[in-house]
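Exercise 7. Given the encoded structure of a 151-residue chain, write a plausible sequence.
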């Protein structure tokens, strides 16, 4: 059985995602590839104390004044995959809130079909937020890291 190359698989995943399909099967001769998209169930209700915990944690993070938020740069995922903050579980994260990064600095990884894709900063700046959790499944276009550009 000949396996399709990674580019073909990425195109199939993009086709499923872009058209909001739940499943796509492509057959060629005796080989077949099925791509399934799992739709996450709605979040379960949480208690008020559990809902306030992230707010308390966020208060400790560096805040950007509202008037400066319009200049923030959102680094997004180019593909569907699992986002990782570090190269392996034993390593420190590439960046944390408050880290200063240069253009081209690796800020995380997105794994798709056992291929790890480096996500890099598009600008020089200070990381203000990491909306995507470590080992979270992310969609194409989903914000992974938010950077406040430094002049």
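Solution.
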């Amino acid at each position: 059985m000949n396996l399709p190359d990674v580019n073909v698989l990425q195109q199939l995943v993009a086709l499923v995602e872009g058209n909001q399909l739940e499943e796509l099967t492509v057959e060629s001769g005796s080989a077949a590839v099925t791509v399934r998209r799992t739709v996450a169930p709605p979040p379960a209700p949480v208690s008020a104390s559990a809902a306030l915990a992230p707010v308390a944690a966020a208060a400790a993070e560096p805040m950007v004044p509202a008037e400066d938020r319009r200049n923030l740069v959102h680094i997004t995922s180019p593909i569907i995959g699992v986002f990782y903050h570090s190269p392996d579980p034993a390593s420190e994260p590439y960046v944390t809130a408050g880290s200063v990064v240069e253009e081209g600095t690796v800020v995380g990884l997105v794994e798709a079909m056992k291929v790890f894709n480096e996500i890099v900063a598009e600008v020089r700046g200070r990381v203000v937020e990491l909306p995507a959790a470590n080992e979270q499944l992310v969609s194409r276009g989903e914000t992974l890291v938010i950077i406040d550009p430094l002049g």
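Remark. Residues 70-149 form a domain with the OB fold (Dihydrolipoamide Acetyltransferase, E2P) fold (CATH 2.40.50.100). Students should compare their own answers with the one above.
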